[in-house]
Amino acid sequence: ETGVTQSPTHLIKTRGQQVTLRCSSQSGHNTVSWYQQALGQGPQFIFQYYREEENGRGNFPPRFSGLQFPNYSSELNVNALELDDSALYLCASSLVGDTEAFFGQGTRLTVV
Amino acid sequence: AQSVTQPDIHITVSEGASLELRCNYSYGATPYLFWYVQSPGQGLQLLLKYFSGDTLVQGIKGFEAEFKRSQSSFNLRKPSVHWSDAAEYFCAVGAHMNTDKLIFGTGTRLQVFP
Description:
The complex is a heterodimer. Chain A is mainly β. Chain A is built from no helices and eleven strands. Chain B is built from no helices and twelve strands.
């Protein structure tokens, strides 16, 4: 058991709406990364948070934003949802400088 | 450009047969290489990783992988596949000290017949 938990597990939203996904890091981990995994694809890096600051971003538009809290938990927010945002969103936590990230089970987002 | 290529989208093997999943990478610096497994509806589980040293690395569940710098490859192998190995397998590459900003391949789906 990795200790990384994500909520909710499934979510259905309408195009144009906003969504917030949550991730609770494994105990002791100070870095959280978010990935988007479209159907039939590998995960794509969205961004990473370290000590409550964004620490690297992939090729995603600004309507994808995030937060990290003092307890190292994190949120992923997506505004103005598009149909192509339908995907499995994975959160991974790690200790900066460590060699392994632990993934949660993911949140399956469907945009209709 | 940094990238990971998994040439085989879908592989089918019989239980007990050997397995090799291919992975090729393009990366400017010394790569950190990983193999992850994903069962349906699940997150990713790390099978093994390579940073330096011995180019043959052992992982969990009887998997191993060999790093070949000259071929830019990191192929995953298992001598005898079990039905429970059926899953999606992802190869990934990361940078030193940034091993959670990973670039993943598109995955190989493994089907195992009894």
